[in-house]
Amino acid sequence: AQQELAAQKAALETQRAELDAREKENESQRTQSQSDAESALKAKQAELDTAQQELAAQKAALETQRAELDAREKENESQRTQSQSDAESALKAKQAELDTAQQELAAQKAALETQRAELDAREKENESQRTQSQSDAESALKAKQAGLDTAQQELAAQKAALETQRAELDAREKENESQRTQSQSDAES
Fold it and tell me: For the whole model, what pTM was predicted?
C-alpha cells in the first residue's frame, strides 16, 4: 500500500510538472498572440492614419483646384464681358459713322434737287453746261451711294463677327465647366 501511495504521489508530481509546463507554454503563446495582435493593430492604425492624411491632402488639392477653376471662370467671364463691350462700342461707332454718312447723303440729295432746279432754270441759257453739271452731280451721288453700301456691308460683317465671338466665348465657357467637372470627378475618385 505504501509503495502504491508513493507511486501515486510520484505520478501526481509528474502530472503537476506537465501541467505547469503546459501552462507556461500557454502563457507564452497567449503573450505572443497578444503581441502579434497589438503589432497588427498598430500597423492597421498606421495605415488608417496614412489614408486619412492622403484623404486630407486630396481634399486640400480639390479645394485648391476648385478655387483655381472659379478664378479662371471669373477671368473668362471678365474677358467675355470686355470683348463684348469692345465689340458693341465698335458697332456703335460704326453705326454713328453710317448715320452721319446717311445724313450727308440726304443733304447731298437735297443739294442735288436744288441744283437740278437751278439747272432747269438755266437750261434755256446754257443746255450744255446744265447737262455736264448734272452728270457730275449724279456721278458724285453714285460714288457716295457706293460708299454708303460699303459701310453698310462692313457693319453687317462686324455684327456677324460679334455673334461668332459670342458663340466662341460661350463654347469656351462650356469647355471650362466640363474641365472643372471632370477634374472634380477625378479628384473625388
Answer: 0.35
